[in-house]
């Protein structure tokens, strides 16, 4: 009875959002490196520091291009009657499996980049912490949250009925 789990992929909007957020983060890091070089390295003419800064800048630029691509293509999620299963990562791939009956709270959230690209997150709180399904199209996020809320309510009703019979 081993049934195949069907994972959902993210929309292209998610990839665009990942690139935009990665670019802004990268630009901030490059600005910090530039400021440190201007204030500390160039006046003192520290050659090793300049090489380290150059290596860091190249790494940041590569990260801005490569990371969103791999994160997007590795991100998967599956929601069924028993659990939420999320696979994500770039260098290290992480898998979160959360039983539906352990859910305590649901919420949807949208940050500034999420709003620009019309994507949202569904944040699921359990007794062990939070799990987030990220970069969902807004409509899909609302639909998932609504379906999970209905499932939680159904589980609560079933538990009340079972406790009433004891």
Question: What's this, in brief?
Answer:
This protein is α+β, with helices and mostly antiparallel strands. It contains four helices and six strands, in the order H-H-E-E-E-E-H-E-E-H. The protein folds into two domains: 12-72; 77-165, PH-domain like (Roll).
Which features does this protein show?
alpha+beta, PH-domain like, 2 domains, three-stranded antiparallel beta sheet, 4 helices
Tell me about this structure:
The protein is of the alpha+beta class. The chain folds into two domains: 12-72; 77-165, Roll (PH-domain like), CATH 2.30.29. The protein has four helices and six strands; from the N terminus they run ααββββαββα. The strands form two sheets. Strands 1-2-3 form a three-stranded antiparallel sheet. The chain has a three-stranded antiparallel sheet with strand order 4-5-6. The longest helix is centred in the first third of the chain and has 33 residues, at 12-44. It is elongated, with a radius of gyration of 22 Å. The mean pLDDT is 90.
């Amino acid at each position: 009875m081993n049934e195949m789990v069907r994972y959902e992929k993210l929309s292209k909007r998610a990839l665009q959002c990942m690139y935009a957020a990665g670019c802004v983060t990268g630009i901030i890091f490059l600005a910090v490196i530039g400021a440190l070089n201007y204030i500390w390295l160039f006046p003192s003419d520290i050659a090793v520091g300049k090489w380290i800064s150059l290596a860091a800048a190249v790494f940041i630029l590569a990260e801005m291009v490569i990371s969103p691509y791999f994160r997007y293509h590795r991100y998967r999620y599956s929601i069924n009657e028993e659990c939420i299963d999320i696979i994500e990562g770039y260098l290290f791939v992480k898998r979160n499996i959360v039983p539906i009956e352990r859910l305590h709270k649901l919420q949807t959230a949208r940050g500034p980049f999420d709003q620009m690209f019309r994507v949202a997150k569904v944040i699921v709180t359990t007794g062990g912490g939070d799990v987030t399904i990220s970069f969902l199209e807004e409509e899909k996020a609302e639909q998932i949250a609504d379906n999970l809320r209905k499932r939680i309510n159904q589980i609560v009703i079933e538990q009340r009925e079972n406790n009433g019979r004891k």
